[in-house]
Amino acid sequence: MDHIKLIRNKIDINHIHQLIIDQSCGACSVFVGTTRDHFEGKKVISLEYEAYESMALKEMGKICSELRIRWPTLKHIAIYHRLGSVPVAEESVVIAVSAPHRPAALESVSFAVDKLKSSVPIWKKEIYENDQIGEWKANMECPWPQFTETSSNAFEYSLCKIERQVENISESKLVQIRTSSNN
């Protein structure tokens, strides 16, 4: 069974463990991502997470489906992500699986963490001790274009794959452009 959830309260790791444990499985693997107290010499006091919630849940469901294709012996999968303010040392994300054997459990959790960071629309802001405004952080795993102050108003056309180029179009013609997230 798959358990996916975005929550605004503290994540209960024991509850998640109870969701995934199964008598037929000899392995449970759990990743717990927590808020650390520093970043690049700055003292972090909390993280703030925001999400495009319906899309995030859909993408989390896709991760579960992909895990089941790659590791068909997985019994239960849980992906919980916290939204709102997460103080230092508290859990931001928990990904847990159960499987009959250790390799599938360990490998699938590692894959799920990377996939979550690269595809789920959840954004993180670090709040520092001497800067209550904080700073939005980009995931290095994320393939989305990174915007800077100078590029935030300009679309980066060079990142788009052109499948077919149309020539000799008069200004009176309407042109339809199709885009795809497939690379």
Question: What does this molecule look like?
Answer:
- The protein has 183 residues and is of the alpha+beta class.
- It has one domain (2-137): Molybdopterin biosynthesis MoaE subunit (Aldehyde Oxidoreductase, domain 3), CATH 3.90.1170.
- 24% of the residues lie in helices and 33% in strands.
- The protein contains three helices and nine strands.
- The protein has helices at residues 13-20, 53-70, 102-119, and strands at residues 2-7, 27-34, 38-39, 42-51, 76-82, 84-87, 91-99, 122-128, 131-137.
- Strands 3, 4, 6, 8 and 9 form a five-stranded antiparallel sheet that branches. It has a four-stranded mixed sheet with strand order 1-5-7-2, sandwiched between helices.
- Strand 8 (122-128) and strand 9 form a beta hairpin.
- Helix 2 runs antiparallel to helix 3 (102-119).
- The longest helix is centred in the middle third of the chain and has 18 residues, at 53-70.
- The radius of gyration is 20 Å and the shape is globular.
- The model is unreliable at 149-155 (pLDDT under 50).
- InterPro entries: MoaE_sf (IPR036563), MOCS2B_euk (IPR028888), Mopterin_biosynth_MoaE (IPR003448).
- It catalyses: 2 [molybdopterin-synthase sulfur-carrier protein]-C-terminal-Gly-aminoethanethioate + cyclic pyranopterin phosphate + H2O = molybdopterin + 2 [molybdopterin-synthase sulfur-carrier protein]-C-terminal Gly-Gly + 2 H(+).
- Substrate binds at residues 101-102, 117, 124-126.
- Its EC number is 2.8.1.12.
- This is Molybdopterin synthase catalytic subunit.
